[in-house]
Structure formats: C-alpha cells, structure tokens
Design brief:
With 125 residues, the protein is of the alpha+beta class. The chain has four helices and two strands; from the N terminus they run H-H-E-E-H-H. A two-stranded antiparallel ribbon has the order 1-2. This is 21084_t:CDS:1.
Length: 125
C-alpha cells in the first residue's frame, strides 16, 4: 500500500477541519470513502453572508453518504469491481447526446434504457 493510501485511510474528519480549497476537501473525502468501499454525493452549499459583489465563501457543504452506519449488511465493493460504483462510470458523448434527444422527445426512462441497450450494447446500461 502506498504512503498516500495509508494517509487517506488514516484520515479522520474532525470538527473545524480546514482545507486549502473546496476541491481539495471534496477530493480528500471522496478518496477516503472510496477506499472504504462506498461513495458520497455532493449536496447543497451554505455560504457566509457576503454582498453580491464579493466572492462567496463556502461555509458548509452537505455530503450525502451511501452508508452512514459502521455496520454493513453486505460485503464492501471489491477493488476490481469499483468501476461499477456510480461516480466511477463514464458516459460517452454520443450516448449522452442520444439520452438528451430521447428526453426531449418525452421518452420514458425504461424505454430509453431499452433503446440504449439495443443501440450501444449491455456495457452502456
């Protein structure tokens, strides 16, 4: 295990933790939970009250955790299956374009899923 992995695994968030930037905060937390085998979704921002002309400073960011308890009812995701985790998936531009066109035509999600599977194969769905 690399030193960076050990640092990430040994990281424990603390009240009043400070980070150099919002991006560094998000990356640190995402890497930490990824190494534990689950993911987070980024929620809403809360800002310090500033005038409209000033740059907004993030005061708080809500993170939505896919597992909030230390007791799991299943095994954690194996390293060779992590690419199935939703934030590890990449959708190609041609697939995105097809989804957008189908949405604009008011096609429902199950039908879009069927069309994508037919057009692009199982690897897309």
């Amino acid at each position: 295990m690399s030193n960076q992995s050990l640092t990430t695994l040994s990281y424990q968030s603390q009240i009043n933790d400070n980070f150099e930037s919002h991006d560094k905060f998000v990356n640190k937390i995402k890497n930490y939970v990824y190494n534990l085998g689950f993911t987070i979704r980024l929620g809403k921002f809360k800002y310090y009250n500033k005038s409209e002309n000033e740059e907004k400073t993030v005061r708080k960011r809500i993170l939505l955790c896919s597992q909030a308890d230390l007791t799991y009812n299943h095994l954690m995701v194996k390293k060779n299956h992590r690419f199935f985790i939703s934030n590890e998936r990449n959708i190609s531009d041609d697939v995105k374009q097809q989804i957008e066109l189908l949405c604009q035509a008011d096609v429902d999600v199950p039908t879009i899923h069927t069309i994508l599977k037919e057009e692009f194969g199982d690897h897309v769905t």
